[in-house]
Amino acid sequence: MNLTLKVWRQPGPKAAGKFVQYTTTADEHMSFLEMLDVVNEELLTKGDEPIAFDHDCREGICGSCALMINGAPHGPRKATTTCQLHMRTFKDGDTIVIEPWRASAFPVLRDLVVDRSALDRIIAVGGFIAAPTGSAQDGNAIPIPKEDSDLAMDAASCIGCGACVAACPNASAMLFTAAKVSHLGRLPQGQPERDRRVLAMVQQMDDEGFGGCTNYGECQEACPKGISVENIARMNRDWVRATLSDRGESAVAAGTG
Amino acid sequence: MNLDAKIPGGPLEEKWDRHKKDLRLVSPANKRKFDVIIVGSGLAGASAAASLAELGYNVSCFCFQDSPRRAHSIAAQGGINAAKNYQNDGDSSWRLFHDTIKGGDFRAREGNVYRLAQVSANIIDQCVAQGVPFAREYGGLLANRSFGGAQVSRTFYARGQTGQQLLIGAYQALERQIGKGTVTMYSRHEMLELVVVNGRARGIVARDLVTGEMQSFAAHTVVLGTGGYGNAFYLSTNAKGCNVTAAYRAYKKGAGFANPCFTQIHPTCIPVAGDFQSKLTLMSESLRNDGRVWVPKEPGDTRKPADIPEAERDYYLERKYPSYGNLAPRDIASRAAKEACDAGLGVGPGGRGVFLDFSTAIKRLGEDTIRERYGNLFEMYERITDENPYQTPMRIYPAVHYTMGGLWVDYNLMSNLPGLHVIGEANFSDHGANRLGASALMQGLADGYFILPYTIGDYLAGAKLEPVDTTHQAFRDAEAEANARLGKLLSIDGTRSVDSFHKELGHILWEKCGMARDRAGLQDALARIPALRAEFWENVKVPGSAETLNQSLEKAGRVADFLEFGELMCSDALIREESCGGHFRTEYQTEDGEAMRDDERFTHAAVWEYQGEGKAPVRHIEPLTFEFVKLATRSYK
Amino acid sequence: MNRIIALWQTAVGKKVAMAVTGLALVLFLISHMISNVLVFENPQHLDDYGAWLRSFGPLLWVARLGLLAAVSIHIAAAWQLTRMARAARPADYNRHELRVSSYAARTMRWGGVLLLAFIVFHIFHLTLGTLHPDFVEGAVSRNLKSGLAVKPVAAFYALAMIFLGLHLGHGIWSVFQTLGLNHPAWNASRKVIAVTLAVLVAGGLLSIPVAALLGLL
Ligand SMILES: Cc1cc2nc3c(=O)[nH]c(=O)nc-3n(C[C@H](O)[C@H](O)[C@H](O)COP(=O)(O)OP(=O)(O)OC[C@H]3O[C@@H](n4cnc5c(N)ncnc54)[C@H](O)[C@@H]3O)c2cc1C
Ligand code: HEM
Ligand code: HEM
Ligand code: SF4
Ligand code: F3S
Ligand code: FES
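^ Those are the sequences you sent over. The predicted structure of the assembly is below.
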C-alpha cells in the first residue's frame, strides 16, 4: 500500500520543529515501527537523517514506543501499543500524521522522542513499598484474597508509556499515578505507607507540570493496557482520606515539605 | 588468566553459609565512602542497585533506555522458579539444584547452582513484600504452575507478565533509593568503555545519548548487569537495544568471556513474516501443554491446514518422543522443527514454520477452556498475524531467546579482572549449556538481592584501593578511545546501512551457529564474518553527528561489537567438539539424532582472553567437577 | 490548618473543592427549581416562598454569602485548573482525536463562563432589579413574568439552562469520580443518576423561560 506520512521533525530539544511529508510503500504484515524502519532506510540512502523514535521490546510491554498516530496515542487500535499496531489497520492511499507526545512535562528531545522521566520521579516520591532486602517474612505469611490480588495486578500492568498523558486534553498524569496508587493500595503490604504515598505522588504530579483531571476519560481509551479510570476515583478517595485523616497533619507536612 | 572459581569447601548445603561467615564486612559508616557503579537496571542491576544503596553504598546506576523500568527483563512472561515446596510435592533446594544442573547438561558449577536454589525462596518473600502481585489461589495463598524440565510445580507467576512485575518491584525499590538520593540514576546513558586503573576496574566511560556528551565516572568497583547478547543474531526475542557492548568492552580490557557459543533457541515463536521483520515474538512455552505440533507429510503441500487429512499429517514430536511428546525440552523441540523445515515440510511464507494445532484440545475441552488458559496469547498472536488460532492452527518457529554464555565470574560474582562484578544474564555462571524455563529471573534477582550485596563488601573491605578520580589518565585515554571510535563510524560515510550489516551477520550466525552447527559451517562463518566486518568499517553509512541524540550511531557501535563478537561465538562453537544443551554439533549425535556430550574432553567452561587487535584470542578452561551429582545422559524419549 | 491548605494546594485538592462547591450549588438549584416551577401551579406560591425566604432576615444573608463563597471557590478553582491544563500542554497537536469525552465534558469551561455571565445577569435582573424594566420589590412572580416577557432575555435564560444541563450532566458524574464515590456494584448507575438529576434540575428551570417564549407563562 502507498502511504503519505506527515512526521514531526525536530533536530533537538531547543530547536524549532516542523512537519515533513514522506511517501512510502508498506506491506500489510509490517508493524508500524517496521514501516518506519523502511522509511528510515530510504532516508539514509538519500543521505538524510532517519526519524528518531523510542522503541525497545517491540512486543507491547516495555512502554518505550510512544507515537501520536492520526491524533490517537498508539494509533487507532484499542489496547494496542504502537509497536504492536500493524499496517493492515491502514489502507492504500492513507495519510498518516505522526507526532510526539505533547506535554510540558514531556519535553521533546528529538523528532518523536520525548523525555518521560517525570513519570519516574512520581514513582520515586512514593510509588513503592519500603521493603529493605532481607527483611521480608514468608511469602505466604499474609494471605491475600485472590480478588484483591487480581485487581492489584490489573493496575500493576501499566507499562508507563505515557499515552494517558498524551491523550488527556489537560495533559494529566492521573491515570498513570492512580494505577500505581491502586496497585500498592490494594495489597496489605501497601497499607502502612498508603496515606503518605498518595499525598506525595499527587503533589509530585503537580510539581512536574501535569494538568488536573476533568474526567474526560480519554486516557482510559488510549491506554494500551486498559487501565480503568476507576483507579482515578480510588486515588482521589485515598487522597481525601489521607488529607483528612489523623495521620494527615504529619503526612501532609512530609508530603509537601 | 586466573580462573580460580573460589568455591568454598565443605558439604554442598553449607558452602554458602560458611562462605558468608568468612566474608569481610564494611562498617556502616564506611559504606558511604565507597562508590559503586552499576551498569544495567534489569532484574539484576536494579535489585543490586537498590540493595547496595540500602546498605549505605554510594551507587550510580546506568541504563540506555529512557527509564530503568524498561530494561529487557520486563518482557519475561512465564514465571520464576523457587524451591518453596508450597505444593508439598517434594520440592527442595536439592531438587531445584539437580534439575538446573541436569537441564544445563552438566556444564555449570555445582556450588553456584546450589546457592541459587537456596536463595530462590528468599526471592519470592522479598518480591511479595514489595507488592509483586503474584497469582494466588482463592484461599489467598500463592499459586504455582509447572514448567519444562521439572517434575514439581515450583514456578511463581503474575499472569503472563512475570518479568514485568518482578522488574517493577525492583524498579520501585530502586526509585525509592533515587528519591532518597542514595542512587544517582543515569538513564539514556550507554557505557562504551570500562576503565581499568592498576589492574582494577575503577570506572566507566558512558555517552549521554541525549546530548552526545562523553562522560567519565569513577568508582571503587564496577558491576555489569547488562543482559544477554542474543541480538547478535539480529532476529531474536530480545528487545532491539539488547547488546554485547558493555560485556565486550570489558572483555577487551581483560575480563574473560566464558562459553560464548551457548545460546538458547526457543521453539515457540511467531515465524518471520517478511524481509522487513525487525524482531521475533515469543509465544509462551505453556501453549505446548494443549497444542499439537505437526507438518504435512508431503513437501510443498499448500492446502489449508484444515483440508489436510489426519493421515497426511506428521505429528513429529509425538512420533519421535512418545513419552514427552509435544512437551519435549526446548532444544529438542527447536531442532525437530528445523529438521522438518529443512526437509521442505515447513508451512507458511518462506516455509519456515510448523503448525501448533489446538483443534484437538478445543474439541476435547471446549473453546472457553482454551480461551481461559491462553486467551491473551491467542489475542497477541492474532494481533500480529491476523489469523485466528481458534480456527486455524498457529504457525510457530524457533528463535534465539537467551544466552547462557557471558563474562566469566567466580563464586563472588567477580570476573578475573579485579573490581569488575558481573550479574544476571551478562555472566555465565549458573545455566551451563541450557537454561531451564523460569530460572533466568531467579538468577538475576538472586545475584542482585542476595549474593552481590555480601560479596561486594568482601572485595571493598579487602582491596586497598587508592583514590582515583576521572582526571586520571586512564579515563582520558578511555574517553579518547570511545570518541575516536564514534568519529570513525561517522566519517566512513559509505553506502550501506547499519541494519543491513546487522541482518547479514545475523543470517550467518543463525545459519552456521544456530540450532545445529557443524565444522564446515562454522569455518565458513569464521571466514565470512571478518570479511563482513572489514566491509562494515569501509562502507557503513552513519548519518548525523555525535553531539546529538543519534540512534544510527548508537546502533552502529553495537553492531560493530557484534561483528567482532560473532567471530568469538563461532570459534567457541568450533572448538567445542561435542553436543550439549543448546550447542548441537551435528557431527556429535547418537544414531537417533540425540545430543552426544564428550565429558572426557569438555567438562569445563571455555574462557576466552582477548589478546589485542588482530590477534586470535586465547582459550582457557575452568574445569568443572561434579562431586554431588552423577554425570548422566539426558533422555526425553 | 495544614490540611485545609493542602486541600487547595494540589490539582486533586482543587477538584475536590470544585466538587464540594458544585454539589452545594446543585442542592441550591434543586430547591430553586422546585420553588420556581411552583409558578405554574399558582404564582402566589412563588411569592409566598420569596416572602418566607426573606423572613429569615440575617440568616438569608448567611445563605447568600455561602452561595457566593461556593460560586467563588468553584470559579477560582476552575480558573486555576484551566490555567494549569493550558500550561501542561503549551504546544498542541496538529491532530488530536477526542474519542470518548462527551460534548458536555468538553464544554465545562466555556459553559461555565456562560453560566457565570448568566448568574451575574440573573442577580441584577430578578434579585436587585437593576436590569429589570419594571421591577417591584417583593413581587417575585410578577417580576419573573414581566422580566421574561422580554423575548431576548427569556431566550438567554433558556440558552443558559441548556448549558446548565450539560454542565450538570458531566459535573455530577464527575463529582462521583472526584470524591472517589465509586463501587463496582453501582458504578454503572452513576451516569444515570447524573443525567437524571441534570435533566430534572435544568429541565425544570428551562420550562419557565420556554413557557415565557411560548407565551404560556
Ligand atoms: C521474551 C522473553 C521471555 C522470557 N521469559 C522468561 C521467563 O519466563 N522466566 C525466566 O526466568 N526468564 C525469562 N527470560 C529471560 C530473562 O528475562 C532474562 O534473562 C533476564 O531478565 C535478564 O535480566 P538482566 O537483568 O540480566 O538483564 P536485562 O534485563 O536485559 O537488563 C540489561 C540492562 O543493562 C542495560 N545496558 C545494557 N547495555 C548497556 C550499556 N552498554 N550501557 C548502559 N546500560 C546498558 C540496559 O539498559 C538494561 O537496563 C525471557 C527472555 C525473553 C527475551
Ligand atoms: C430559568 C431559570 C431561573 C429562574 C426562572 C430563576 C428565577 C429566580 C427568581 C424569580 C429569583 C428571585 C427570588 C427572590 O427574590 O425571592 C431568583 C433568585 C436567585 N436565583 Fe434564580 N432562577 C433561575 C436560574 C438560576 C440559576 C441557574 C442560578 C444559579 C446558581 C440561580 C441563582 C439565583 C440566586 C443566587 C438568586 C438569589 C436568591 C436570593 O438570595 O434571594 N437562578 N431566581
Ligand atoms: C450554576 C452553578 C454551577 C453548578 C451547580 C456547578 C456544578 C459543577 C459540578 C458539580 C462540577 C463537577 C466537579 C467535579 O468534577 O467534581 C463542576 C465542574 C466545573 N464547573 Fe461548575 N458549576 C456551576 C457553575 C460554574 C461556573 C459559574 C463556572 C465557571 C465560571 C463553572 C466551571 C466549571 C468547570 C470549568 C468545571 C470543570 C472543572 C474540572 O473538572 O476541572 N461552573 N461544576
Ligand atoms: S496508565 Fe496506561 S497509558 Fe498511562 S502510562 Fe500506564 S499503560 Fe501507559
Ligand atoms: S483524559 Fe484526562 S481529564 Fe482525567 S479522566 Fe483521563 S486524566
Ligand atoms: S517497544 Fe516496547 S512497548 Fe512498544
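The first strand of chain B starts at residue 35 and ends at 39. The mean pLDDT of chain B is 95.

Shout if you want it in another format.
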